[in-house]
Design goal:
heterodimer; A: 336 residues; FAD/NAD(P)-binding domain; five-stranded parallel sheet; B: 108 residues; alpha+beta; Ubiquitin-like (UB roll); binds flavin-adenine dinucleotide
């Protein structure tokens, strides 16, 4: 069981900066994110793009902003549960909340800050009929444990780095591997593209381009996929696994069922302190909505700052909070 | 009088929406769909960094060729056909009068 003062769901810029503002008030934080790395949209969608509207930075690359935020909060020693999605929430008898992830990791805290952005980044699932019936029965949207593919027949589809890298990696391990891609060109790293072409030439893999997987079938588990060539030809291929790798997209997911008031997929908050309809649960950054809301990084920072003041008062009802500038007090780390 | 064009967008339920677009504001097809209330996410804001505005051009209009960045992003879309484009990369201009586009299926 992980215990902390503020449990932050989402390690995007808003969640990360919350650690700083909480740290100034000597509150400890722990972050959960479905992605394996912090940074939210900035690292997942546009790490190399310059941002021009962060106060004090005429221009900063999204990836660098996240790096800076990580450096800024390091002194407060936040904990991270990465690669896991916050799934359920429960209010305990002592008034604290218990949040459990899809992998069963439990977290307990008196304050929950939902900084979930556009939602949890999840693999994109192709709109193929019946595909959900074969999930975990041959259809896998990511490779967690490569060993499970040893000596198996595998069909991978996609044209980016993960499709190329896993094709290369699994080529040695699998019995047979087929990579299906919609066009001849690939967007992945040139080295990987070269390597895949070499493996194809050496008949270590089957490369089927200008084609896509359009059907999945099997008795109880996956047995076959149908591949449609752009010229209309159909190829039926026996396989044990189908791994579609089409990148990630954000989905609100389980938070939608937490009893919070929603409006158009966003959580309604009171702009006094960004608290939701459930006392002790706050929503900050892109995930919340209120009259005049703008989905901007700088607005998320502001919301996080005000939220921490209320969080402090809930955690320390008897203490008075006196407001101090960082220039006056400097910053003192938190003992771990 | 302000200059406008008319286009048709066919949604995922095969419903046709005729849309009149003014030419004096710099719009792209993704923004037009969003403004019309059509179910187009446009997650990345129009930088060809997601593929949520994937659509098919159904009329015979000759458009500017897709850039490498657009082709790369179409790799993340499904059911990509010869006439597939990202709406955000199609700038609205007078040449597009009468354009017919269909929204592509979304991921599950
Ligand atoms: C291409 C692009 C360009 C942009 N340019 C600018 C700009 O110039 N200036 C600007 O201010 N803003 C810009 N934005 C918007 C900005 O990125 C967002 O406002 C910002 O990312 C919001 O931060 P956040 O921390 O609230 O959410 P996010 O960055 O979306 O992070 C949320 C995180 O929460 C995680 N999460 C959600 N639910 C769960 C769950 N149940 N369990 C575990 N994890 C979960 C997600 O995986 C994600 O990592 C841009 C956005 C894009 C896509």
């Amino acid at each position: 069981m992980i215990e902390t003062d503020i449990l932050i769901i989402g390690a995007g810029p808003t969640g990360l900066f919350t650690v700083f503002e909480a740290g100034l008030l000597k509150l400890k934080c722990h972050l959960i994110d479905a992605l394996p790395q912090p940074g939210g949209q900035l690292t997942e969608i546009y790490p190399k793009k310059p941002i021009y509207d962060i106060p004090g930075f005429p221009e900063v690359l999204a990836g660098d902003l996240v790096k800076n935020l990580m450096e800024q909060i390091e002194i407060f020693k936040p904990g991270f549960t990465l690669g896991e999605r916050a799934e359920t929430i429960e209010k305990l008898e002592d008034g604290k909340f218990l949040v459990t992830t899809n992998r069963g990791t439990k977290h307990k805290a008196p304050i929950i800050a939902i900084a979930g952005g556009l939602g949890s980044f999840e693999p994109r699932k192709p709109p193929i009929e019946n595909i959900s019936a074969f999930e975990e029965r041959g259809v896998e949207y990511m490779v967690r444990d490569p060993e499970m593919f040893a000596e198996k027949k595998i069909v991978i589809s996609g044209g980016g780095d993960s499709a190329l890298d896993w094709t290369i990696y699994l080529a040695d391990l699998a019995d047979e591997i087929t990579l299906v891609h919609r066009r001849q060109g690939f967007r992945g790293a040139p080295d990987s593209v070269q390597k895949v072409k070499e493996l194809d030439a050496a008949e270590k893999i089957n490369l089927i381009t200008e084609a896509q997987v359009t059907g999945v079938s099997g008795e109880t588990a996956l047995e076959q996929v149908v591949i449609r060539k752009n010229n209309g030809d159909l190829i039926e291929k026996k396989t044990d696994f189908f791994i579609p790798l089409f990148g990630l997209s954000p989905k609100l997911g389980p938070i939608a069922n937490w009893g919070l008031h929603l409006e158009k997929n966003a959580i309604l908050v009171d702009t006094f302190d960004y608290q939701t309809n459930i006392p002790g649960i706050f929503a900050i950054g892109d995930i919340n909505t209120y009259p005049g809301k703008l989905k901007l990084i700088l607005c998320g920072f502001h919301e996080a700052t005000l939220m921490c003041q209320s969080a402090y008062k809930i955690i320390n009802p008897e203490k008075k909070l006196s407001f101090k500038y960082t220039t006056v007090t400097g910053i003192k780390g938190i003992e771990s | 009088m302000e200059e406008t064009i008319q286009i048709a967008v066919i949604d995922r339920e095969d419903q046709k929406h005729d849309i009149i677009i003014p030419l004096d504001i710099d719009l792209n097809l993704m923004e037009v769909c969003k403004a019309e209330g059509l179910p187009v996410e446009g997650t990345c804001g129009g930088m060809a960094l997601c593929s949520t505005c994937h659509c098919y051009i159904q009329s015979n209009h000759i458009l500017r060729q897709a850039s490498d960045a657009e082709e790369d992003m179409l790799d993340q879309a499904f059911d990509v056909l010869e006439n597939s484009r990202l709406g955000c990369q199609i700038k609205i201009s007078s040449e597009l009068n009468g354009l017919v586009v269909k929204l592509a299926p979304e991921s599950l």
